[in-house]
Design goal:
Structural class of chain B: alpha+beta
Number of domains of chain B: 2
Structural class of chain A: alpha+beta
CATH topology of the largest domain in chain B: Cyclophilin
CATH class of the largest domain in chain B: Mainly Beta
Strand order of the largest sheet of chain A: 14-15-18-17-20-13-21
Helix content of chain B: 10-25%
CATH architecture of the largest domain in chain B: Beta Barrel
Number of domains of chain A: 2
Largest sheet of chain A: 7 strands, mixed
Largest sheet of chain B: 4 strands, antiparallel
Oligomer: heterodimer
Radius of gyration of chain B: 19 Å
Strand content of chain A: 25-35%
Shape of chain A: globular
Order of helices and strands of chain B: EEHEEHEHHEEEEEEEE
Chain lengths: 316, 208
C-alpha cells in the first residue's frame, strides 16, 4: 500500500483507458504521456497496461506502507527516496516506511509512479482510469488516501535497478511536433495553413487533460459554420470560431463539431503533452500516415529493446 | 474515408442530419461488429459518419480502410437487427417550457403533445456519458439553444435544441432548453447494462 502525503494538483490513476465505451459518450482517458506511463510499467515488470499514478503540475509525496518496487518516469519530476536523490526511469526497491518525493521541475508537466503489482483502485466500466467529470475511477486524492498494490509474484530486490538506455524519445520545451492532415484541412485558407506550419504556439494555463488550448496566430476559415458532430480522437487539432487551435488530449470528448485542421501523431503526443504550459513553444510539421505509424511502431519497439536488466552485462 | 488521426479512421456517409443517412451509419456499425478484426478497438457513430479507433501496432490505415470497404456493400445484411424501443415517462414541468411555448406560438399542452407525437431515433451519443442525441423533432417546436448555457443541469432533464431532443444523463452544464424531466437512470456504471440507450435505439416519450 502507498499512502498519499501530498497529492499533485492533478493526481489521477491511469491504465490504458476505458476502451469500448466511446459510442456511449465515455471518453477514453489513459495517460497524458503514454510513453513514460508504459516505460514505468515495463521497468517494474508489470503488464504494459497496468494502472499507475499520474502526477501533474505540482510536487507530490508518498509513504510506502509495505516493501515495494517502484519506478518514476517522465521528464517533469526529480525523485527523492528518504530525501536522497535517485534516478528516474529506473526501478527502485523501497522498504516499508520509505518516503517517496517527486519534486516538480519547470521543464515539463507530467510524471508517473508505477509499483510492481500495479495500483488496484476500483474498476469502473472495466478500467481504473480516473475520469472525475463522470465520477469514474478513483479521484480527488487527499492527504491520507491509501492506494493498494496488487500481489507480487517475484523477488522485489532482484527486479531493482532496471533502467532504459538510451531513452528512445526526445522531450523538449520547444519541440517540432509531427502532424497528419485533418479531415477538414480544406476548410482553411492557404494562408491559414501556411501560418499553422510556420508559427510558434504556446500552451495556455486553461489547458488540462481534456485539451491543450494554444495561443499564437489565429487561423482563418474558408468555410464558416459548425459541422454536424462526428467522431474525435486524441491528437486532433480543432479550430473553434476564434481561430486558436485546441489539441485534444486523453480525456477529450468522443465527438465534436469544430473543423480539425490536423492531428498530432501518436509518437509525438507524449512530447507535446510534456511541453511546459505558457513557457514552452511548439511548432508543427506535416508527415504522412504511413510515416506516422512507422515511427509509432519504432518507438514502442525501441522502448522494449532498450530496457537493461541489472544482471545484463552485454552492454559493458 | 479519411484518417482522423494515426490511430483512427473517419468515414463520412453524408453531410446532414438525415434519417436515411443515419440509418446507414448504424447498419455499417452493426455489420462491422459481426466481422471483428483483431486490432480494431471500437467504432463511434456520428450523425452521418462512423469513426473507427484501432491499434497501429496491429493494423495500418490501409488495412483498416480495406476491411471497411469490404463492408460498405454488405451492410444491408445487418439491417435485420431488431430495433429496441425504449419508453421514457416524462413530467413536463421544465423551466423553459413556457418560453418555448411562447416562441413557438403554441400552448404548453400543445408543445407536450408535439414532443410525444414522434418516435425518435438515437442518432448518436456524446457530450457526456450516456447523452442521446435524438431526432428528428417536429418542425413546429424547434427552438435555438439558450444564448447563455446553464452551468448546472440536473440528471434526467429532457431538453430540445434545433432539430434535436435529448436527456441529460448526469449533472452537467447545458445549453439546451429544458422542457421536462424523467426519473429513469440513463447511466449507472455499476449496472450490468450501464447505459439505458445505445446508438440506433428508438425512443418514445410518454407524458405523465
Amino acid at each position: 500500500m502507498l499512502e498519499i502525503i501530498t497529492p499533485s494538483v492533478l493526481t489521477t490513476i491511469q491504465d490504458a483507458g476505458r476502451r469500448g465505451w466511446q459510442a456511449f459518450g465515455v471518453p477514453l482517458s489513459g495517460p497524458m504521456d503514454a510513453f513514460a506511463w508504459r516505460a514505468a510499467n515495463l521497468l517494474v515488470a508489470n503488464p504494459p497496461d497496468a494502472a499507475v499514478i499520474e502526477f501533474g503540475y505540482t510536487s507530490a509525496e508518498l509513504l510506502a506502507l509495505e516493501d515495494c518496487l517502484v519506478a518514476a518516469t517522465g521528464p517533469a519530476f526529480a525523485l527523492f527516496i528518504n530525501e536522497r536523490p535517485m534516478r528516474a526511469w529506473t526501478s527502485i526497491y523501497v522498504r516499508k516506511n520509505g518516503h517517496i518525493r517527486l519534486e516538480k521541475l519547470d521543464t515539463a508537466n507530467w510524471g508517473y509512479l508505477a509499483a510492481h503489482g500495479g495500483i488496484t483502485s476500483a474498476l469502473a466500466l472495466s478500467s481504473r482510469s480516473s475520469y472525475p467529470a463522470a465520477r469514474l475511477g478513483a479521484s480527488q486524492f487527499v492527504t491520507g488516501h491509501i492506494l493498494t498494490i496488487g500481489p507480487s509474484r517475484a523477488s522485489l530486490p532482484a527486479l531493482a535497478s532496471r533502467t532504459i538506455d538510451p531513452l528512445p524519445i526526445q522531450y523538449s520545451p520547444t519541440p517540432t511536433i509531427a502532424t497528419i492532415p485533418g479531415p477538414q484541412q480544406t476548410y482553411f485558407t492557404h494562408s491559414a495553413l501556411r501560418t499553422f506550419y510556420a508559427s510558434a504556439y504556446t500552451i495556455t494555463p486553461t489547458s488540462d487533460r481534456t485539451g491543450y488550448r494554444l495561443d499564437g496566430p489565429p487561423l482563418e476559415r474558408l468555410i464558416p459554420g459548425e459541422l454536424i458532430s462526428e467522431g474525435m480522437a486524441r491528437g486532433c487539432i480543432q479550430i473553434p470560431t476564434d481561430g486558436l487551435p485546441i489539441v485534444m488530449q486523453a480525456d477529450c470528448p468522443t465527438t465534436g463539431g469544430y473543423p480539425k485542421i490536423a492531428s498530432v501523431i501518436a509518437a509525438d503526443q507524449p512530447i507535446l503533452a510534456q511541453v511546459p504550459i505558457v513557457t514552452g513553444k511548439i511548432r508543427f510539421t506535416e508527415t504522412s500516415i504511413e510515416q506516422a505509424q512507422t515511427r509509432y511502431r519504432a518507438l514502442q519497439a525501441n522502448l522494449t529493446k532498450n530496457i537493461i536488466q541489472p544482471d545484463d552485462v552485454s552492454w559493458l | 474515408m479519411l484518417p482522423l488521426s494515426d490511430t483512427s479512421l473517419l468515414i463520412q456517409l453524408g453531410d446532414k442530419i438525415d434519417p436515411q443517412i443515419n440509418r446507414r451509419v448504424h447498419m455499417l456499425a452493426a455489420a462491422l461488429a459481426l466481422d471483428p478484426l483483431p486490432g480494431i478497438c471500437e467504432t463511434v457513430p456520428g450523425y452521418a459518419s462512423l469513426t473507427i479507433h484501432y491499434d497501429p501496432l496491429a493494423l495500418t490505415h490501409t488495412q483498416v480502410a480495406d476491411w471497411l470497404t469490404a463492408h460498405l456493400h454488405l451492410s444491408a445484411a445487418a439491417a435485420s437487427r431488431p430495433l429496441k424501443l425504449i419508453e421514457v415517462p416524462v413530467i413536463y414541468d421544465g423551466p423553459d417550457l413556457a418560453s418555448v411555448a411562447e416562441t413557438c406560438r403554441l400552448s404548453p399542452a400543445k408543445i407536450i403533445c408535439q414532443h410525444t407525437s414522434t418516435l425518435y431515433t438515437v442518432y448518436m451519443m456524446g457530450f457526456t456519458p450516456g447523452f442521446p442525441y435524438l431526432g428528428i423533432l417536429p418542425e413546429s417546436i424547434r427552438v435555438p439553444r439558450l444564448a447563455a448555457p446553464r452551468s448546472h443541469v440536473q440528471a434526467g432533464a429532457v431538453a430540445i435544441a434545433g432539430m434535436q431532443t435529448g436527456i441529460y444523463p448526469v449533472d452537467s452544464p447545458g445549453g439546451w432548453q429544458l422542457i421536462g424531466r424523467t426519473a429513469l437512470t440513463l447511466f449507472d456504471p455499476a449496472r450490468a447494462q450501464p447505459f439505458l440507450f445505445a446508438p440506433g435505439d428508438q425512443v418514445q416519450f410518454i407524458a405523465l
